[in-house]
Automatic annotation (TrEMBL), chain A:
<comment type="similarity">
    <text>Belongs to the MIP18 family.</text>
</comment>
<dbReference type="GO" id="GO:0097361">
    <property type="term" value="C:cytosolic [4Fe-4S] assembly targeting complex"/>
</dbReference>
<keyword id="KW-0159">Chromosome partition</keyword>
<comment type="subunit">
    <text>Component of the CIA complex. Component of the MMXD complex, which includes CIAO1, ERCC2, CIAO2B, MMS19 and SLC25A5. Interacts with CIAO1, ERCC2 and MMS19; the interactions are direct. Interacts with KIF4A; the interaction facilitates the transfer of Fe-S clusters to KIF4A to ensure proper localization of KIF4A to the mitotic machinery. Interacts with CCDC117; the interaction is direct.</text>
</comment>
<feature type="domain" description="MIP18 family-like">
    <location>
        <begin position="37"/>
        <end position="112"/>
    </location>
</feature>
<dbReference type="GO" id="GO:0007059">
    <property type="term" value="P:chromosome segregation"/>
</dbReference>
<dbReference type="Pfam" id="PF01883">
    <property type="entry name" value="FeS_assembly_P"/>
</dbReference>
<dbReference type="InterPro" id="IPR034904">
    <property type="entry name" value="FSCA_dom_sf"/>
</dbReference>
<protein>
    <recommendedName>
        <fullName>Cytosolic iron-sulfur assembly component 2B</fullName>
    </recommendedName>
</protein>
From TrEMBL, chain B:
<dbReference type="InterPro" id="IPR011989">
    <property type="entry name" value="ARM-like"/>
</dbReference>
<dbReference type="InterPro" id="IPR039920">
    <property type="entry name" value="MMS19"/>
</dbReference>
<keyword id="KW-0227">DNA damage</keyword>
<dbReference type="InterPro" id="IPR016024">
    <property type="entry name" value="ARM-type_fold"/>
</dbReference>
<dbReference type="InterPro" id="IPR029240">
    <property type="entry name" value="MMS19_N"/>
</dbReference>
<dbReference type="GO" id="GO:0051604">
    <property type="term" value="P:protein maturation"/>
</dbReference>
<dbReference type="GO" id="GO:0016226">
    <property type="term" value="P:iron-sulfur cluster assembly"/>
</dbReference>
<keyword id="KW-0206">Cytoskeleton</keyword>
<dbReference type="GO" id="GO:0005634">
    <property type="term" value="C:nucleus"/>
</dbReference>
Length: 157, 1026
C-alpha cells in the first residue's frame, strides 16, 4: 500500500480549537454575519483523500486564505496542495467546492482556486474548478462522487 | 403386574403403529410414577424392535429414547449396561434408526451410574459406525452434546483413548456449518486443548478443522431466535486457536495472512488473536515469524484507518514483545530481545527526528507499546530513544516541534511506568532523570500555554515513577507550580497545574505542606493593594487568584497530613468572611465550600479515612454549623455572607459528603449532635460557644434561623442506612410543621427534602405507613383548598415525599403521584406539577441519591412509567385548556427513561408527541423535541409509519421564531437521516430543499446545525455516502 501513496509522511499541523461561543451568538435578537472563520470551519474538517487527516492538519486550507463577503454574497478560497505535483489537487478542490455548495445559501458565488505558485498545473486545475458545467459533470460521475462523499463524511473511520 | 404390562403394550401400540406422539409423554409419566418399569417397557417394545420395517424399528427406539431422556437417572448400572449394548448395536442398523439411537445414547451419557469402560466403547462404535456430517442438524448437536457430557464426567476414560479420541472428533466436526453446532463443537475442541488431552499426531488436523472458520464472518439473521452473536463465536474459536503452543507454527502464518487482508474486521480479529496467543508462547514458537509479524503490525499502525485497529496492533506488539522478553537467554546465541527491538528501533527511530511529519506519532506509539512490555524492553528502548529526544528538544527552537517532542517524551515516561520495581536505580529512566527534569522545568517556564500544560503532565508522570525525582527536584517543582498558579494568565494552564500538584502531593506531601500551603494561605488572605484600580495590569485578577488558591488547596489535600494543613486555611477563610475581618465576597466563600467538599470526596477509602474523618466530623462540621448559627443569630447592619442561600447550599454537600463517605461511627455522632441542636437548641458541641440558651431553629419565625434546616439535612440524610438518627418522630413532625408553615422558600423546601430523606431511609412497617398517611392527608387537604395560603408549600412537601416513596417502591407513593397527575389541571399549580415530574425522574444532587445511601430500587423510572403512562394519555385527551401541561409532563418522564424502554413504549405515545410538535407553546415544542431526539437514534418500527407526519412537522419548526426550537428540529432532522435509507429516501429532495433556508439563518448556531443536517441528507443514497 505504501508504494501507492505519493506523500507517505507529510508534515502535520496543529488543529485550531473550536470556535469560542460569544454572548451575542446566544442572543436571539442579534444577527450573526457569515464570516471567514465560519467558512473555514466548514472546510477544515474535510478529509484528505489519501491520509486519515483533515485538510487543516495538512495545511491545505488556512483561515487567512478564506475570504467572504456576506452582503456581497461571494466566497473566495485558496488551497495549497502538499506537494507541487499532487495529483489529488483537483479532487481536493472539488471536495471543497461541493462542501460549500451544500452548506451555503444559494445566493453565494463560490470561487475555489489553488494558492498561486503552489502547484505545477495550477491554471488547468483552476479552470476546471471554475467551470460550472465541468463541476456538474464531474458530480454525475458516480466513482468521482463516491470519493468526494468519502472526503465529506464526518465518520470516515 | 399383568395390568401394567397391558398398559405398556397399549402405549407402545399407539405410539409405534398409531403414530401418536403424545403417548411418549404418558409413557414417561407412567415410568416415573412407577406404573411399569423400563424393563417392562422394553418387553412391550419387543415386537416393534424386531420388526422387519426400519421405520417401525425407528419408532420403537424413539419411544424408548424419549422415556430415557427423562428417566435416565432412575436406571440401575445393570440396566444401563444392557441398554448401552443395545444402542451400540443399533448404530449399525438402517439409517432411519440412527437419530433416536443417538438421542438414547445421549441420555445414557448423562447417567451417573454409567459403568466404567462404557464411555470408551460408546465412542468407538460412534466413530466407527456413524458419519456425523451426513446427519441432520439436531443429530449432529446430539453427538456434540454426548461428547461434552462424557468429557465432564469420564475424563480419564476418554484420555485413555489417546489421540484416537481427537481423531474421531476431528472427523465428526469436519465440515460443520451451523453456528449453533459450531458453538458446541468449539466447546469440545476447547476442552480437548485446555484439559490436556493427548493430541498426538493430530494437532495439525485439529487446527485445520477449527482454523478454517477463522476469521469468523457471521451475521445473525434478523429476528434470530437462537441469539448467537458473532462475538460469541469469535471468542469460542479464539480460545481454541490460542490455547496451546503446539498450534503456533500453523497459527502465526495464518494471522500474518489475515492481517494483510483488506477486510477490517478480519484484521481486527487477527490482531486480537495474536495478542491472546503469544501470551502462551515461548520465544522458540514465535522466532521464525517475528519479522513478518512486525511488518504487518507496523503497516497497520503507520497507515492506520481506524483507532480500534491501531489499538489492537499496539497491544499485539506489546504482547509479542513481552513474549520475546520471557525467553531464557543462552550464552552462545545473541540476545533475542535486543535483536527484535533493534528491528523496531531501526524502522521507527528516524521518524522521531522529524517532529513535524505525520509518522512521528505512529512510530512513537509503536516504540512505547514495546517499551511498556517488560523491564528489559524498557531499558533497551529508552536507551535508544530518550537521549536523542532530549537532545532534539534542547536544540529545536520551534514551539510546535518542542511540543511534539515533549508529548512524545511524556508518553515514554508513562509507558515505563507500570513496572513495579522498588529500586530507583532499576528504573529505565534513572540515567536520564536530571536531563528529563531539565527539559520539564525549562518547559514550565516557557511562554507557550500548551507547552506548559504538557510539562505539567510530564512532571506528574515523572513523579509517579519511584525514585526519579529527589527531594530538591520536588522542591523546585513545587516552587515552579506555585509560581505558575499565582502568575499565569491562562486558565487552562492553571487547571493543569492544579491537577499536577494533586498528583505530586499524593506522593510527596511534605514539600507541599512546607512550601506551597503557606504561600497559598498568604495569597488567599492578601488584601489587594489598590482595589479601585481596574485590573488592567498583568496577572490574573484578585478574584480568580483566590479561586485558584482554593482549587489548589483542595487538589493537594490527598493525605491526612495535608488535609490537616489545608482545611484550616479554608475554614479560616469562611470565618473571616463571616466576621468581615478580610473582605471576602460570597463567591469566595462558595469556592471555599466547594474546596472542602472536594477534599471530602477525594479521600480514598482506606485506613487513612479514620484521621480525615475525625478532622471533618470533629472540626469542620461543628465549625461550619457554628459559623452559620452565629450568622443567623447576628443582628447587625452588615449581613454576613453566610446568610446567603448560595453559601448555605454549598455547605450542604461538604457535610453530606463527609457523612456519607467518612467513618459511619462519626456520622452517627454528628447526626445525633445535629438533631439535639435543631430540636433542643443544644449548642454544647459547637466551638466559640457564646450562643443564647433559647434557640429554636425549627420554629420558622425567623427565616435566618429556619433556613439552617438545609444543614440539618446534610447531617441526617446522608449517613449509611445502618446509622440510627435519634428522636426521629419528634424531628419528622417538626420538619413537617416547618415545611407547611414557613413562607421562606429555602426553609420550606429544605425542610421538605430533609423530611423526604428521612422517610426514604426509615425501616418499613406500621409506623412508617401511618406517618405517611397522616402527611398525605394533611397535604391533600391543603392542596384541595384553593384559598389555602400554603398551597405551594404543600405541593413541595408532596413532591419530595412522593419521590422518597417512589424510589423505595413504597405502595403509598401511588396516592401521591395520582394527586400529582390530578394537579396538572390546576390553574395555579398545573405548570409546576408538570415540572415536578422532572424532579421525580431525575437524580437530585443533595438528597435521595445512591451516593448518599438512599434506598433507590433499580428501574424505578421504568416502573413508574409503565404504571402511569396511560393516565397521561387519558388526561391529555380529556383536558381542554391545559393540554400542554400533559405534554410537558410526558416529555419530562420520557427524557429520563433508558433507551430500551423508550423504544418499546414509544408507539403508544407517538401520536401525543406528534401533537406536541404542532402545539403552539414554545416550551412544549422544545421539550417534545428534546424527548424525540434520543428516540430517533434507534427508531422503533412504529415511528416509520408516521414518517410523513414527523418530517413535515419538523420541517415546519425550522422556521420557528425561537432559535432553540429551530436548532432542536434541525438536530432531529439530522437524526432522521440515519433511518433505514429505503424509508427516508423519498423525502430526500424535499428535506434538502427545505434545509436551504436555515442555511441562511440569522443565527450562526442554527446555521451550523443546518449545515450538519443537510450534509448528512446529501450523503444519503449517494455513492460513497450511505
Amino acid at each position: 500500500m505504501s508504494s501507492q501513496l505519493e506523500n507517505a509522511n507529510p508534515v502535520v499541523f496543529q488543529r485550531s480549537g473550536e470556535r469560542l461561543l460569544t454572548a451575542s451568538e446566544e442572543d436571539e435578537d442579534v444577527h450573526d454575519p457569515i464570516d471567514d472563520r465560519e467558512i473555514f470551519d466548514l472546510i477544515r474538517s474535510i478529509n484528505d483523500p489519501e491520509h486519515p487527516l483533515s485538510l487543516e492538519e495538512l495545511n491545505v486550507v488556512e483561515q487567512v486564505r478564506v475570504k467572504v463577503d456576506d452582503p456581497g454574497s461571494t466566497v473566495g478560497i485558496e488551497f495549497t496542495p502538499t506537494i507541487p505535483h499532487c495529483s489529488m489537487a483537483t479532487l481536493i478542490g472539488l471536495s471543497i467546492k461541493v462542501k460549500l455548495l451544500r452548506s451555503l445559501p444559494d445566493r453565494f458565488k463560490i470561487d475555489v482556486h489553488i494558492t498561486p505558485g503552489s502547484h505545477a498545473s495550477e491554471e488547468a486545475v483552476n479552470k476546471q474548478l471554475a467551470d460550472k458545467e465541468r463541476v456538474a459533470a464531474a458530480l454525475e460521475n458516480s466513482s468521482l462522487l463516491e470519493v468526494v462523499n468519502q472526503c465529506l463524511s464526518t465518520h470516515s473511520i | 403386574m399383568a395390568a401394567d404390562s397391558a398398559l405398556a403394550l397399549a402405549l407402545v401400540e399407539e405410539f409405534v403403529s398409531g403414530l401418536v406422539d403424545s403417548k411418549a409423554k404418558e409413557a414417561t409419566k407412567a415410568v416415573k410414577d412407577g406404573e411399569f418399569t423400563i424393563l417392562q417397557l422394553v418387553e412391550a417394545l419387543g415386537l416393534s424392535l424386531t420388526s422387519s420395517q426400519p421405520h417401525t424399528r425407528a419408532r420403537g427406539v424413539q419411544l424408548l429414547s424419549e422415556v430415557l431422556h427423562e428417566c435416565s437417572n432412575s436406571l440401575t448400572e445393570k440396566e444401563v449396561e444392557v441398554l448401552k449394548t443395545f444402542y451400540e448395536n443399533r448404530l449399525k442398523d438402517h439409517y432411519v434408526v440412527t437419530p433416536p439411537v443417538l438421542q438414547g445414547l445421549k441420555s445414557l451419557t448423562k447417567c451417573t451410574v454409567l459403568p466404567s469402560g462404557s464411555a470408551v466403547s460408546m465412542l468407538r462404535s460412534l466413530f466407527q459406525d456413524v458419519h456425523v456430517q451426513s446427519l441432520m442438524l439436531a443429530e449432529r448437536a446430539c453427538v456434540y452434546n454426548m461428547l461434552i457430557n462424557l468429557m465432564e464426567t469420564r475424563e480419564a476414560e476418554l484420555k485413555s483413548l489417546g489421540p484416537d479420541f481427537v481423531f474421531g472428533f476431528v472427523q465428526s466436526m469436519d465440515g460443520e456449518r451451523d453456528p449453533r453446532n459450531l458453538l458446541l463443537s468449539f466447546q469440545v475442541a476447547s476442552n480437548i486443548i485446555h484439559r490436556g488431552y493427548d493430541l498426538g499426531k493430530f494437532a495439525e488436523e485439529l487446527f485445520e478443522v477449527t482454523s478454517c472458520y477463522f476469521p469468523i464472518d457471521f451475521s445473525p439473521p434478523p429476528n434470530d431466535p437462537h441469539g448467537i452473536t458473532k462475538e460469541e463465536l469469535i471468542l469460542a474459536l479464539r480460545s481454541i486457536l490460542t490455547g496451546t503452543p503446539v498450534f503456533a507454527e500453523f497459527l502465526l502464518p495464518l494471522i500474518i495472512e489475515k492481517v494483510d487482508s483488506d477486510v477490517q474486521s478480519s484484521k481486527l480479529d487477527s490482531l486480537q488473536t495474536l495478542a491472546a496467543c503469544v501470551s502462551r508462547y515461548d520465544y522458540k514458537d514465535v522466532a521464525k515469524f517475528l519479522e513478518g509479524l512486525w511488518t504487518s503490525i507496523r503497516r497497520e499502525v503507520f497507515q492506520t484507518s481506524s483507532e480500534k485497529l491501531e489499538a489492537a496492533a499496539l497491544s499485539a506488539l506489546q504482547a509479542l514483545t513481552s513474549c520475546v522478553s520471557r525467553c531464557v537467554q543462552s550464552s552462545d546465541s545473541e540476545d533475542s530481545l535486543s535483536c527484535f527491538l533493534d528491528l523496531l528501533i531501526k524502522d521507527c527511530k528516524h521518524h522521531l527526528s522529524e517532529p513535524d511529519l505525520k509518522l512521528v506519532w505512529p512510530s512513537a506509539k509503536l516504540l512505547q507499546a514495546a517499551c511498556s512490555a517488560s523491564i528489559r524492553a524498557s531499558h533497551i528502548i529508552t536507551a535508544a530513544v530518550i537521549p536523542n529526544l532530549i537532545e532534539q528538544y534542547n536544540s529545536r527552537t520551534q514551539c510546535s516541534q518542542r511540543r511534539t517532542l515533549l508529548e512524545v517524551l511524556q508518553k515514554f515516561i508513562q509507558s515505563v511506568k507500570s513496572l513495579g520495581s522498588t529500586e530507583a536505580e532499576d528504573n529505565a529512566l534513572f540515567p536520564y532523570r536530571s536531563s528529563l527534569c531539565g527539559v520539564v522545568f525549562s518547559a514550565l517556564t516557557e511562554t507557550n500555554d500548551s507547552l506548559q500544560i504538557l510539562a505539567t503532565s510530564a512532571l506528574a508522570s515523572l513523579a509517579q515513577q519511584t525514585g526519579l525525582l529527589d527531594e530538591s527536584d520536588i522542591e523546585l517543582a513545587v516552587d515552579h507550580l506555585t509560581k505558575l498558579l499565582l502568575t499565569d494568565e491562562d486558565e487552562r494552564v492553571c487547571r493543569a497545574v492544579v491537577d499536577c500538584a494533586g498528583t505530586l502531593a499524593a506522593e510527596h506531601p511534605a514539600q507541599f505542606i512546607s512550601r506551597m500551603i503557606p504561600r497559598l494561605k498568604m495569597e488567599t488572605f492578601a488584601v489587594p493593594l489598590d482595589a479601585d484600580v481596574p485590573e488592567a495590569s498583568q496577572g490574573p485578577s484578585h478574584q480568580s487568584l483566590r479561586g485558584r488558591c482554593v482549587a489548589a488547596l483542595a487538589s493537594v489535600s490527598r493525605g491526612p497530613s495535608v488535609v490537616q494543613q489545608s482545611t484550616p486555611v479554608l475554614l479560616e477563610l469562611i470565618s473571616a468572611a463571616h466576621t468581615g475581618s478580610v473582605q471576602f465576597t460570597m463567591e469566595d466563600v462558595v469556592l471555599a465550600c466547594h474546596g472542602l467538599q472536594r477534599i471530602a470526596d477525594q479521600v480514598q477509602v482506606s485506613e487513612e479515612t479514620e484521621e480525615t474523618g475525625r478532622c471533618f466530623h470533629h472540626l469542620i462540621i461543628p465549625r461550619l454549623l457554628s459559623l452559620a448559627l452565629q450568622a443567623a443569630l447576628q443582628d447587625v447592619p452588615r449581613p454576613s455572607p453566610l446568610l446567603e442561600e448560595s453559601v448555605l447550599t454549598a455547605m450542604v454537600p461538604v457535610i453530606s459528603s463527609s457523612c456519607s463517605r467518612l467513618q459511619p461511627k462519626f456520622a452517627e455522632e454528628t447526626a445525633s449532635k445535629a438533631v439535639s441542636l435543631f430540636l433542643n437548641g443544644d449548642v454544647s458541641f459547637l466551638p466559640d460557644n457564646s450562643f443564647p440558651s433559647q434557640i429554636q431553629l425549627l420554629k420558622g419565625d425567623c427565616w435566618r434561623q429556619s433556613q439552617m434546616v438545609c444543614l440539618l439535612m446534610g447531617c441526617v440524610c446522608a449517613a449509611p442506612r445502618a446509622v440510627e438518627v435519634p428522636h426521629q418522630d419528634e424531628l419528622l413532625s417538626a420538619l413537617e410543621e416547618l415545611s407547611l408553615s414557613s413562607s421562606h422558600t429555602l426553609s420550606y423546601t429544605s425542610a421538605a427534602k430533609c423530611y423526604a430523606g428521612l422517610v426514604n431511609k426509615r425501616t418499613p412497617g406500621e409506623a412508617l405507613d401511618s406517618l405517611v398517611q397522616r402527611t398525605v392527608k394533611r397535604v391533600c387537604s391543603e392542596l384541595d383548598n384553593p384559598k389555602s395560603g400554603v398551597r405551594s408549600q404543600a405541593f413541595t412537601l408532596m413532591i419530595w415525599v412522593a419521590k422518597a416513596l417512589l424510589l423505595r417502591y413504597h405502595p403509598l407513593s401511588a396516592t401521591l403521584t395520582d394527586k400529582l397527575f390530578s394537579l396538572l389541571d390546576d390553574p395555579d399549580l398545573g405548570s409546576v406539577a408538570a415540572d415536578g415530574f422532572s424532579l421525580l425522574m431525575s437524580d437530585s444532587s443533595d438528597v435521595l441519591n445512591r451516593a448518599l445511601h438512599a434506598d433507590v430500587r433499580i428501574m424505578y423510572r421504568q416502573r413508574f412509567f409503565t404504571d402511569n403512562s396511560s393516565k397521561l394519555v387519558q388526561g391529555f385527551h380529556a383536558a381542554t385548556e391545559r393540554k400542554s401541561n400533559y405534554l410537558k409532563a410526558l416529555s419530562n418522564i420520557v427524557n429520563k427513561l433508558p433507551k430500551q424502554v423508550q423504544t418499546t413504549e414509544l408507539p403508544a405515545l407517538l401520536s401525543l408527541l406528534l401533537e406536541g410538535l404542532s402545539c403552539p407553546d414554545l416550551t412544549v415544542q422544545m421539550s417534545t423535541l428534546s424527548c424525540l431526539q434520543p428516540v430517533l437514534v434507534q427508531p422503533p418500527p412504529a415511528l416509520l409509519q408516521q414518517l410523513e407526519a414527523l418530517v413535515s412537522r419538523l420541517l415546519a419548526l425550522t422556521s420557528s421564531p425561537a432559535m432553540d426550537v429551530r436548532m432542536g428540529s434541525l438536530r432531529c432532522i439530522q437524526a432522521l437521516s440515519h433511518f433505514p435509507s429505503h424509508e427516508i429516501l423519498p423525502f430526500r429532495g424535499r428535506v434538502l430543499r427545505a434545509l436551504s433556508k436555515p442555511l441562511d439563518d440569522r443565527k450562526r448556531k442554527v446555521r451550523s446545525e443546518a449545515v450538519q443536517a443537510r450534509g448528512e441528507w446529501f450523503l444519503l443514497g449517494s455513492p460513497g455516502g450511505r
